[in-house]
Structures are given as C-alpha cells and as structure tokens.
C-alpha cells in the first residue's frame, strides 16, 4: 500500500464529508477532485472505485447518525424516559420521514438504470449545478418573511410529501439532495433550519439503503489490498462530515441559500474550464 493511495483516500473522504450534506453538490466536487485532478479511479480498477465511493458515503451517513442520535432514537421509539406526550404530541414522527422518502424511492427504483447510463457525466452535472443554484435563489427570494414552520417538529405530512417530490430532483447527479429539499421546504414556508433538519434526517435511510445495495453488488472489490484504502476514506469522510454538518446547521438560518447558490455557479465555471483544458 503506497502512502499516495492513502493520501488520495483521505482527500476524497474530506471532499465527500464536507460536501455531502451542504447544498453544493458532492458529485460536482468529486468529479473535480477525483476524475480531473487526482485521477484516482485507476488505483484499483472501476469496481474498487465504485465501492470506495459507497464506503466514504457511509462515513458521511454515520456522522449524520451521530449528530441526530437522540432524534433517531425518538423516531424509532427507543429513547428511554420519554413521556407519552413527547411521543404522540406535536413532533416529527417516523411516518413523516417515510412520507418524504416515497417519491424518490419509487422514481429511483424505476429509473435507476437510465440515470446510471445517461446522467452520470460532467456535462449533465454542470447543468444540474446551475439549475440547482437557480432553484435555491428563487426559494430565498420568494420565501415568506416569517416562516410558518419554525422547527422540524411542526412539519405537516403535506410538507413532508412535497419535500419528497423536490428530493426527486436529486436523482439528477449534481443537483444536490440538500439543495433541492431545503429549497422545497423554504418554498413551503419552513425555516431554513427546519428544512435542513428534515432533509438530513430523511437522507439517512435512503442513502444507507442505496449504499448497502451498491456495496453488496460490488463486494468482490473488497480485498486485503483495498481495505486500508477504504478504511482511510471512511474515517476521513466521517470526521469531516461531522464537522461540516454541525457548522452548516449553525449557519443556515443566518446565511440562507443564496451564498451556496453563488458558490455552485462558480463551481460550474471551474468545472467547465477544467473540461476545456483537458
């Protein structure tokens, strides 16, 4: 195992961790750092590269689980010393999360092969980066002055379902799951923090399920030679995702979405310049 390979794994884990849950498109960043700069896909072959991307995504998911640990225990009814009022009162329930998951789960199942075959390219990611930025700008400019839903515990089933419809946009690589769903929540009258909380909680089961299926499919790439590479990426993604999630949640109600939209447009320009210079 060369130290360069471990360095590559750490850098890719860093990129995944910092960008997976921010509305800036982790896919766009991974293309720049992986395919256009580090050229790391040749290290162990295509199948190993697919497994690695799953592994670092799992690192990010585990960071989300840590941040929302108490919330997930509540949703599953596993938290001790919780009162009946807390369990059945006005609060986020597991059924809200399931309601939000249904649209993207159905469309993802129906169009998975088409998405893999036609939408995973630099050109489509470029378009998605800009389209997602426009949606975020529109959401910020048209949002109500005073949010109707201040916290995630006030979310309605209608809001959960419509946010789930916005999540379908994230099936287009580069659009960003958090960018589309937070924008949808804001357009529905939710505060940025409430929309972000629901987005992150909803992301865990759908990302974990997709990662698990992909890992099983490509399990043959897990060998004694690649395991240190995978572990390094996983740890890096976990640590930096933990930092990024806490920072983002503390920041989102203050800065809103437009700064992230501007960043996405700049990222698209950088990506376009890199393509031209190939």
UniProtKB/TrEMBL annotation:
It is a multi-pass membrane protein. HAMAP family: Undec_diphosphatase. Its main location: membrane. Belongs to the UppP family. Keywords: Antibiotic resistance, Cell membrane, Cell shape, Cell wall biogenesis/degradation, Hydrolase, Membrane, Peptidoglycan synthesis, Transmembrane, Transmembrane helix. Catalyzes the dephosphorylation of undecaprenyl diphosphate (UPP). Confers resistance to bacitracin. One of its GO terms (cellular component) is plasma membrane. It catalyses: di-trans,octa-cis-undecaprenyl diphosphate + H2O = di-trans,octa-cis-undecaprenyl phosphate + phosphate + H(+). Its EC number is 3.6.1.27. The chain crosses the membrane at residues 51-73, 94-111, 117-138, 159-175, 195-215, 227-251, 257-276. Bacitracin is thought to be involved in the inhibition of peptidoglycan synthesis by sequestering undecaprenyl diphosphate, thereby reducing the pool of lipid carrier available. This is Undecaprenyl-diphosphatase. NCBIfam families: PRK00281.1-4 (NF001390), undec_PP_bacA (TIGR00753). It comes from the Bacteria. The gene is uppP. GO terms for biological process: cell wall organization; peptidoglycan biosynthetic process; regulation of cell shape; response to antibiotic. It is found in: Cell membrane. GO terms for molecular function: undecaprenyl-diphosphatase activity. Pfam families: BacA. The keyword Lipid metabolism does not apply.
């Amino acid at each position: 195992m060369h130290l360069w390979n471990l360095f590559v794994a750490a850098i890719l884990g860093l990129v995944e961790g910092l960008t997976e849950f921010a509305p800036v498109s982790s896919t766009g960043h991974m293309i720049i750092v992986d395919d256009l700069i580090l050229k790391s896909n040749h290290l162990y072959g295509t199948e190993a590269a697919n497994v690695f991307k799953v592994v670092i995504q799992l690192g990010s998911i585990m960071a989300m689980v840590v941040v929302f640990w108490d919330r997930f225990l509540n949703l599953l009814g596993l938290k001790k010393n919780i009162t009946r009022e807390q369990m059945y009162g006005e609060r986020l329930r597991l059924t809200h999360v399931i309601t939000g998951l249904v649209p993207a789960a159905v469309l993802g199942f129906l169009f998975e092969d088409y998405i893999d075959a036609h939408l995973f390219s630099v050109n489509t990611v470029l378009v998605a980066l800009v389209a997602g930025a426009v949606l975020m700008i529109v959401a910020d400019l048209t949002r109500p002055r005073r949010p109707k839903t201040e916290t995630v515990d006030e979310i309605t089933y209608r809001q959960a379902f419509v946010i789930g419809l916005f999540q379908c946009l994230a099936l287009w690589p580069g659009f960003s799951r958090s960018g589309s769903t937070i924008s949808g929540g804001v357009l529905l009258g939710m505060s940025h923090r409430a929309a972000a909380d629901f987005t992150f909680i909803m992301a865990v089961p759908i990302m974990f399920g997709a990662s698990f299926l992909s890992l099983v499919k490509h399990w043959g790439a897990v060998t004694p030679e690649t395991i240190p590479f995978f572990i390094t990426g996983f740890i890096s993604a976990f640590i930096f995702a933990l930092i990024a999630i806490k920072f983002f949640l503390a920041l989102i109600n203050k800065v809103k979405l437009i700064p992230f939209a501007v960043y996405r447009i700049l990222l698209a320009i950088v990506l376009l310049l890199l393509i031209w210079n190939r």
